[in-house]
């Protein structure tokens, strides 16, 4: 089995991906998409 160190793996910028997701989520929230407005039957 060949030895591969972590340095040979492709670098991923997870923080940038998360920021992009949050930006899209915030835009959708302001646009009123994906609203949860189900009425509850309890008091």
Question: What's the main sheet like?
Answer: none
Helix content: 25-40%
The unreliable regions are: none
Number of helices: 1
Give the termini distance in whole angstroms: 63 Å
Mean pLDDT: 77
Anisotropy-based shape: elongated
Order of helices and strands: H
Going by helix content, strand content and strand pairing, the class is mainly alpha
Bin the strand percentage: under 5%
* Overall strand count: 0
How large, in whole angstroms, is the Cα Rg? 20 Å
Protein name: DUF3941 domain-containing protein
Region (Disordered): 1-43
Biased composition (Basic and acidic residues): 1-29
Quick recap:
This protein is an all-alpha fold and 43 residues long. Helix content is 40%, strand content 0%. The longest helix has 17 residues.
Notes on the protein architecture:
- It is a single chain.
- The chain has 43 residues and is mainly alpha-helical.
- The protein has one helix and no strands.
- The longest helix has 17 residues, at 14-30.
- Residues 1-43 are annotated as: Disordered.
- This is DUF3941 domain-containing protein.
- It comes from Rossellomorea vietnamensis.
- Residues 1-29 have a biased composition (Basic and acidic residues).
Key descriptive features of the protein:
43 residues; mainly alpha; 0% strand; single chain; elongated; 1 helix
Outline the secondary-structure elements.
Elements: H1 14-30
Organism: Rossellomorea vietnamensis
Protein name: DUF3941 domain-containing protein
